[in-house]
Write a structure and sequence with these properties.
disordered N terminus, 78 residues, mainly beta, single chain, OB fold (Dihydrolipoamide Acetyltransferase, E2P)
Length: 78
């Protein structure tokens, strides 16, 4: 039996602290932007649906979603 961080037996397509470029496709119920990487939903603070090629930094990964923030200088909004 393994102890430590439980990842549900599956590796996630993102890692905490890493940066990724994403398109924001939807808006979450709390107003955050929603993106997807490898099927994983990522809630992005201060982003909105329609934002393209946004650079994000992952700050939390749990079993069925992740949260992220926009990286400074990521301003390609429409």
């Amino acid at each position: 039996m393994s102890y430590g961080q439980n990842t549900g037996g599956f590796s996630k397509p993102v890692e905490i602290g890493n940066e990724y470029s994403v398109d924001i496709t939807d808006t979450g119920r709390d107003g955050e932007g929603v993106a997807r990487i490898g099927g994983l939903i990522i809630f992005v603070k201060n982003a909105k649906a329609g934002d393209k090629n946004m650079k994000i930094k992952i700050n939390l990964v749990v079993s069925n979603f992740a949260t992220a923030e926009l990286v400074s200088g990521s301003t390609d909004t429409t």
